[in-house]
Every structure is written in C-alpha cells, then in structure tokens.
Amino acid sequence: MTIAGEALTPGQARGTTLVLDEPISFWGGVDENTGRVIDTHHPQSGASVAGSILVLRCGRGSSSSSSVLAECLRNGVGPAAIVLAEPDSILALGALVASELYATEIPVVVLSTDAYAACSAARELTVEVDRGSMRAVVRIVS
Amino acid sequence: MSTISLTSDEQAMLAGDGGVATQLAARLLVRMAELMGAERLVPIASAHVDGCLYHGPVSIDFAERLVAGGGSVRVATTLNVGAVDLLHPELNRGDPTRRSAGRELMRLYSALGCRPTWTCAPYQLANRPSLGEQIAWAESNAIVFANSVLGARTERYGDFIDIAAALTGRAPYVGLHTDEGRLATLHFRVERMPARLAASDVLFAALGYLIGRRAERNVPVIDGIEHATEDQLKALGAAAASSGSVAMFHMVGITPEASTLAVACGHRTPRQVIPVSRADLADAATALTSAGNASLGAVSVGTPHFSFAEFERLRSLLGGRRVSDRVAFYASTGRGVQEELRARGWLDDLTAAGVTIVTDTCTYLAPIMAPIAGAVMTNSAKWAWYGPNNLGIKVIFGSLEECVESAVRGERWRDGELWRDDRG
User: Fold this and answer.
1) B217 CB within 8 Å of a chain A CB
2) What is the pTM of this model?
3) What is this model's ipTM?
4) Would you call A74 an interface residue with chain B, using a CB distance cutoff of 8 Å?
C-alpha cells in the first residue's frame, strides 16, 4: 500500500515502526545517549526510538525538543524517519539542524488522519521524499 | 505549505552575501517560516535568545559553526540563562566537563554580539520592547510576558531559530506577529475572590496553571481580575506556559490589547466561557504540591528571575529575621537586579539573613542546590511543574509569605487566612 503525504524535511528511510500512543516531548522524554523513552508517564516508556520509523500524532511541550532530537541524531540513536498526523516545526527543526551539521538527513512527514491510522497499524514502512515538490511517499511493507 | 515571498535583502542573505553564518541562519529561518505557513518575513527590532543553555554537543557544534562563519547579530539581542552561574562560581555543582561546556557555550553566544544579560526576565531590563513592536523572543515565560503585558509581537521561538532570527533580523510573519493571531478565542471568567487571595501571588500562579491546562492552542482572555502587578502577571504567564503552551493572554482592563472583553476578542464570540471559582484555584494550588507531608529542606524563589520589587517584598517579609539553619534559601535573579541590590546596600543584608543569590542561571535547570533532605518550597508554579522531573525533588507550593515564614521557622507554615472565604 502506498500513501502520499507532505514532507517537512527531505530524506529517505526504511525501518520497523515504533508507534507512540501519546505525543511526546523529546526534552525530558527521550534519552539523547540511548534513544530510549524515559518519560515514565508515557505508554511507550522504555522503548527505543533508535533506527525506528517513529510514528506519533504530534510532538508536545518545550522547544528544547529540537535540541534533544538533534543530539539523538548526532549520537546515532535518533529515529530513521518521523511520521506525524499534524505538522510539528519543533521536531522538523531538530532534523534540519542535524542535517546541516552532520549530514544525517531524516525525513519528517505529515499524513492525513486515515493514512496516519494505516501507518500506525503497520510493522515496517519505507519513506521517500521528492526534494523538488517536498511530497512524501510512504509504503507499508508489512 | 506556503511559497514564501522574499525581499531582495532576504534573498541576498540566502545567497550568502552576508557570510556563511547569516546564510545558514537565513536557510533555517525561511524553511521554518514555510513550515509555519508564513507568506513573508517581518523585520524585527530585537531578539532574546535561549540557545545559550547547554543541552549537549550539538549546542556547541551549532554555535561554533555560526562563530566560524563570521556570525554577528543584526538586531539588539539579549541572552537567556546559561548552565552556570558566572558570578558565583562556588555555587555550580555537577559534572565539571558539562560545566565547562556550558561556560564555553555562553562565551560563543557572546561572541556573536549578543548582550551577556543571562536572564529569563529580559522584560526587567531597560529598553524593553514597546506596544506593537515586532520581535523574536525565546523562553516561554519571556514570550508570554512580551506578548501579553508589553504588547510586543513574537511567536514561540526556541533553540536554533532564535539566533537565526537575531542573525537575519527577521521573523516569520505569522501567528502572534499578526493582528488576527492575537485575538482571544477562549474566555476565563474569574469569580470575585476574597480580598487576601486576590492580592496574593498564589492566585496568579494557580490561575496560570489552570489556564495552561485548559487553553490548548487558544489565546485566552481573563476577566474578573481588578488589579495585577507586573510580577503577578509574570507568575501567571510562566505558569500557563509551563502547564500548557500559552504564548499570550489578555486580561480585561489590565493588559494593553484588552481595554474591553470585546476588543480582546476582536468583537467575536469566544469558543467557550470557562468559569473559575475559588475552589478551582484551590485545587490548582493543591495539584502543584507534590511533596505530601514531607519535611521542608529548602526554599527556591525567582523562577522566573526575581525582580527588584520582589526582593523588596522578600526583605519586608523577613523583617530582619534569619532563615533557619535547617533550610537552604535560594533566590534566582538577573545580574542587573543583583547590581541594584548592591547599590542599595541590601545584598549583604540578604546574605546575612541566609539568602543565597543565584544569577545567570536557575535552580530548576542547573545543578546549583546543595543536596537537600526534604522537599523544596516555592511560590513559582513553573518551578513546581518542572522541579520534580528535572531534579527528582518533591515540591511544596505556597505564597512568598508562606515560603519566607516556613524558611524562618524551619518547617512548613501555612497561612490560615489565605484561602478563607470572607465574601459577603
């Protein structure tokens, strides 16, 4: 199954999904050295975002989440892509800065509610972004 | 997503005419403006930058890239708190490597031409922004104060994009920068409160906490408050920006864009009216205390940074008495206010009374406080919100008077009259 969406940042990725049942603040919520969810109130507390296609409705809270996402990417424990249901400029900025500093691009894409629901039920996804149009294509592998 | 239209000056920055640091800043700013749905940028009069607080190596890598690229701010730029107290180095604790990285980051941001103000309350400095002025500010409490109390115009900016705005002198023209984006959409109607509560700092902190929990993405308007000081409005905004993501509020008859309820709402009907009772505020105040019956270990005030007026009040509440030996008492403030205290001859008095003055940073962010046996008492809803998670400390929330009286007695003291209902 192929889904079209809008890309906030360019890049391409293939990986296993980590679906978050609630929004997360990377600042205070994700450990930048391990990529683990450390927010003890979060339903996916203890899971690792490292190398995953991170599927979450939207980010939450502090603008310092840009920094923490960028730290994760610098440390090689960031997600391979982020799939959202609502645009999130704070997460997009973290990905943009990491790409400027470390040439580690990860696509951050926004899907419609239905498409998002389909992705949150998937186990493996690919994400590709066309740089010219900034259109995203998400494929459900399994 | 919008296609943004840029002036020739802005296109030149993107093309690298202002050097590679400005070019990187312009690239990030334009991309963010597109993501935020802006159709153009707007020139700004000043910036307040929070990126000088160390989060990790990325903070340094980014700032070094800007310094190496010849970066220099285009507008007057103040700096938020850093990770260390530069004026009281003996107070800094924690990992020495992280501490020196924190200090290095503060040096790099100064090298970009920012003023080393190191305060989260830049609105307490001279030359603050005026009504209608376009600015780009970071730090959630400063943002909400600038928009609400000063009537200056900023969206919520944070790490990376704050300095990008300062280096380009531009912000995305969207949201709270526009007339439309500033109109109130949610109405909080506060019932008449008992006189003692109405005058206290607790009312404003608790009301801010409650509004933050309910406001979602709305601009709230509050009516029913007859009088408020700038420090009370500071407490309200800081609370609402911690428990929620409020970046602006109106208070009818008090804030500059709310001469009437109708004006604040742009003569439209707000989505919802939320009544606020004394019991609602009491619940909010209770929710901010996470310490149960734990004993008192320390008091921390000045989040956001204590103003000179707040030190006057602290002095009068102390009334020449000394804080108990069992309790550490921290007051975080800007170095400018500390200078005023020194000039007035109060600094030595406060120190002798057992008050530790912290500048340039804040006790909820940086390892400043000595190991504490017991809970920390504060009159700051922001401290009460972040303290438990950041520091693993339990909090007792109370009025400044309760904080001072508890510190002097060495145990938790509650003002029995504060919440009493004396309304006829």
Assistant:
1) no
2) 0.95
3) 0.94
4) yes
